[in-house]
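Subject: complex prediction, re-run

Hi both,

The earlier run crashed halfway through, so I resubmitted it with identical inputs.
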Amino acid sequence: MIRFEQVSKSYSGGVQALQKISFHIQPGEMAFLTGHSGAGKSTLLKLISIMERPSAGHVFINGHDLSKISRKQIPYVRRDIGMIFQNHRLLRDNTIFDNIALPLIIEGYGLKEIRKRVDTALDKVGLLDKARYYPNMLSGGEQQRVGIARAVVNTPPILLADEPTGNLDPKLSLEIMRLFEEFNSVGTSVLIATHDLGLIARMKYRTLTLTKGRMVQDGLQAEENQGAEL
Amino acid sequence: MSLLFKQRNSAGANQRKLGIVAKIIAFFVGNIRHWLAALGDIWRDPIPSILTVAVLGVSLTLPSIMYVVAKNAQSVEQHWQNAAEISLFLHTDLSDKQIQTFVKQVQLHAKVEKVTFVSNEQALDEFEQLSGFGDALNLLEANPLPNVLIVIPLAEYALASPAADLLTELEQMREVEFGKLDIEWLRRLNAVLSLIKDTMGSLGVLLCISVVLIVGNTIRLSIINRKEEIEVLKLVGATDGFIQRPFLFTGLWYGFFGGLIAWLSIEIMLYYLSGSIVRIADLYQSDFRLSGLSVAEMVNLLLISMGLGLSGSYLVVRKQILLIEPDSSI
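This time it finished cleanly. Structure:
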């Protein structure tokens, strides 16, 4: 589903963010991406959503080479990827309903369909009663769930999350992770960047570990060596 | 539409089944929604919009007033067009038949619009009535007045120098004793009028350019203010066209309100001025009245100002939205 082939990314000024990264996430797979801040987690996610282009190598989604995607086509690629951010990135002036409806409005859905899908998404994240609220009236955990609802409302085949539990306490974090598992169980590929090692250890999923832009480990995070690696 | 996943029905499933008519309706409904949404955005953050619209209104008022002045000047000028009237005094020894042939001959002249023949009897009657010398005139044995032919040239020969040329041409005819045309003042009037028209034209162009720039700048600032929102839109897959649309509609609204203000201020000014104009017109024994903007002209004003607003926003929207890319902490 998501395949990296010898991907390197360097920023102007010679900073090497990623070096020769290769991996393949299968359709319907759920994986974690971990490493210290600055290890290149965000850069890797940005390469998938084409916020950045690789300096060398190729990124494939569902077999399509992203280097062949023109600037004009980028929006259509992003519609296939649900993205979740640490700071939620909700529109403060819009209601929860409008925030979640955004991807559907952009794709030109009819009002009836929008209502149906937004309600389904709100129901999944357990916020059906807060559709008319504004983001600042919700707690951090609730805002993050709104962000997730927005990411899944148009049922994309891929979900990317960048530190989705960064600001949440362990109990809320686990709730959020359970949500991701739920979406994964219906066939969505999920890639979650996080440095919450405790959480990863409890979840037992494939873990890609980055250190200084290199992939140092790809596989099930073994509990005994997690301290040594990071 | 999904580029990467062919089997995926995104937007489409329901929409593709719509017929052409339904699609057209959906297009208009969609645009009206954006149009109203843009109005809502203006409403939510009214201060910068009000300032911009006020500046637009003033900028548009000036050229529109010039237009109204030019329009009224034209109707005054039309009264003065009679000035390009050539009087031909004919020799007294012509027979009626000769006169008739001559009138026909002048009538057929390529540069002549209209010919009025005033016989010496008519002239005498008129003189009798106007002068009050009725009784005294009866003492005259013969009518001392000549037959006169009043020639009105075609519009393109009514200007000072072609009218003079026509006069010389007509004077050369054997039946004419002499002709008369007061050209100097006509020439000056025409020069002044064309100067005024040119000045107004160039000022109008400048003011329209300023409207475009003002709208452009305001839209640019509002795009910068909504940077965060635009980033989010780009992240969830909005095309540049989708993001641009509300800003273009905002430009359209600015133009609309600016045009409305311009129209209102013209009406107020006309109302304010009409009293003194009537007084002046009365003193000149003229029934001249100031005419304002007709409905068609008002619609034109609104269309032009909306066009200017739209082009102002179009100028900046594309580039500004290209500049904003979701970045830093995704």
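Chain B touches chain A at residues 1-5, 8, 10-11, 14-15, 30, 44, 229, 231-240, 242, 325-327, 329-330 (CB under 8 Å).

- K.
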